[in-house]
Amino acid sequence: MSTSRIYGPLISTASPGEHERQLVDVFAMTAAAPTELSAPTSADLFGVPGPIRLQAFATPGVEAGAVLCRFAEPGAPIREEHSRVHRDALRVVDFYAPDFDEALAHAASAGFAMQAAEASYETNEGGFREAHRHGPDGVVTAFLHGDRDFFADFAEVRDLVLSEPVSISLPLSDAGPTVAWYRQVFGWGVVYEYDFVDASFSALMGVGEELRVRSVTIGPSRQQTYVNVVDYGVGAGLGGSLAGHGVAPRRGLLGLVVLADDVEQIARAALGAAGPIVEVDLPGFGSTRALVVAAPFGAPHLVIERSGR
């Protein structure tokens, strides 16, 4: 099995400027030069006409960050206000804030204030605080704060205002196929589970009914970025499905970027869910090979081979 890890979110946008400023000014990421994929490469990777503009952002000191993509003909948003807790599409990018109030002030001073509602809830691991920002293209970012010893086992960057992307949440109608798929394709397993009910979290999510949050987190280890497969326990009136929405060229939190030692092994493990392997020159990653594999819930996972294999 090829060694792999989640690099971070793949964000699709028609207007990358605000995303770029937030990633750099709030999350202290460094920006690589943007690059343009040719029409044939765009078609091989994402199955849509090109060219595609890609730009990588990196959290200094760790193999984590984010990638922005702009398709030649950007589609409609994946998520909108009415579908904020719908299932079957990625939902939130989470960052650890060692000092919660400092992080809120830092974001506000950069022009990216978090929404007024905050959550404060208890799990069996202690108390947590959480704040959200609803950004362009329906992309939500979250600040998480809790016991420092707890986050020492999850966040790699703990000496800055905000960490690398710690997790990306994913509400699903049926978690089983996706959990099995991550294990088959990437060799990842369940690294953590939690369960809580709290009125402040329901208010943060903007829903009137009580949410019962149950989560199974999937990744290569607790210490690296993971997928937070979550069940909000919402009723039929709120909990619709976005199946088929989280695909290129739609805008928003489109998919994940994964780093792997051997993309050929990933392609074999993914079977029919894998596209062709292409040679690419991606600033931030170098001259390398890449492919896209589609998860059971549809989202593209851009797998980039680590250079120097």
Automatic annotation (TrEMBL):
All copies of domain VOC, residue ranges: 164-306
Gene3D superfamilies: 2,3-Dihydroxybiphenyl 1,2-Dioxygenase, domain 1
Listed InterPro entries: Glyas_Bleomycin-R_OHBP_Dase, VOC_core
Protein name as it appears in the record: VOC domain-containing protein
Protein source organism: Nocardioides dubius
